[in-house]
Amino acid sequence: MKYIKIFLIIIIPFIFTACFIPERRLYFSWNRPQKIKDTCDYEFNVNTNISLIKTERGYLLDTDKEIYYRLGEEKPYNIDDYYYVMNEVMTFMSNNRNCILIVEGHADITGHGNGDINYRLSERRASVIRDVILSSGFFHKRVQIFAYSDIIPKYITNISQNRRVDFIALKCERELSNYLNYYSNYYSNITAFSSNINE
After folding, report:
1. CA 106 – CA 91 distance, rounded (Å)
2. Would you call 46 exposed, middle or buried from its count of C-beta atoms within 10 A (0-12, 13-18, 19+)?
3. pLDDT by residue for the chain (199 residues), tens digit each?
4. Domain ranges of the chain
5. Where exactly are the transmembrane stretches of this chain (predicted)?
C-alpha cells in the first residue's frame, strides 16, 4: 500500500502536466496540431491558357489575347477577347483562393501632358474590370486596382494597344505591401522624370 501511494504521488503530477498544460501536453499522432503553413508558400495552380511571367511587382497573367479600348473610352471594344480573358482570369482566381489580383489600367500617350486625364482614364478602365470580377462573387479584398496612365507602354508601333489592362497575381495579402512600395516609388520617379523633361 505504501508503494502504491508513492507511485501515485510521482505519477499524478506527470499525468496532469502531460495532459492539461498546453505547452507541455503530450500529443499522440491523431491529435498532434499541424504546423501552420505560410499562406504565401505555395505554387500557383495554372490552367493551360495562362502563363505566369515573374516581374518586380508580382506574377503577370499572360494569355494569348488582351483587352483593348478605344480612345477616351473605359469599356473594352474587343468583346470576344474580353470574355475570353475574363473567363481565364476568374478561373485562375477560383483555382488559387489565397491570391490577390491586381488590375492595372493603362492609357496611350494621346492626351499626355493634358492634366491627369490619362491617369483618370486608366483608373476607370481598371475599375470597370474590378467591378465585373466582384459581381461574380469574389471577395472585394482580393481584387485591387492601380492606374498607370501612359507611363508603362507595352507597344511601340501600334500605340493604341497600350490602352489596355494588365493582371498581376500576388500569392497572399502580405505581398500587397511590396506591390504598394513598388507602385509608389515607380510612379513618383517616372512622373518626376516626365515633368523635368517637359520643363
Report:
1. 23
2. middle
3. 677 777 667 776 666 565 555 444 454 554 455 565 777 889 999 977 899 999 989 999 999 999 999 999 999 999 999 999 999 999 999 999 989 999 999 999 886 666 588 999 999 999 999 999 999 999 999 999 999 988 888 998 889 999 999 999 999 988 999 999 989 887 666 555 454 434 4
4. 1-33, 51-198
5. 6-22
Contact assessment for residue 46 and residue 52, using Cβ atoms and an 8 Å cutoff? yes
Q: Which residue has the cell 478605344?
A: 70
**Placement of cell 503577370 in the chain:** 60
Could you please report the per-residue DSSP string of the chain?
-HHHHHHHHHHHHHHHHHHH-GGG----TTTPPPPPPPTT-S-----TT-EEEE-SSSEEEE-S---BB-TT-SSBS-HHHHHHHHHHHHHHHHH-TT-EEEEEE---STTTTSTTHHHHHHHHHHHHHHHHHHHTT--GGGEEEEE-TTSS---SS-GGGGSBEEEEEESSTTHHHHHHHHHHHHHHHHHHHHHHHH-
Radius of gyration of the chain (CA): 26
Q: What's residue 19's pLDDT? A: 59
- Quick one: cell of 80? 470576344
The class that CATH gives domain 51-198 is alpha beta
Q: Is the pTM of this model over 0.85?
A: no
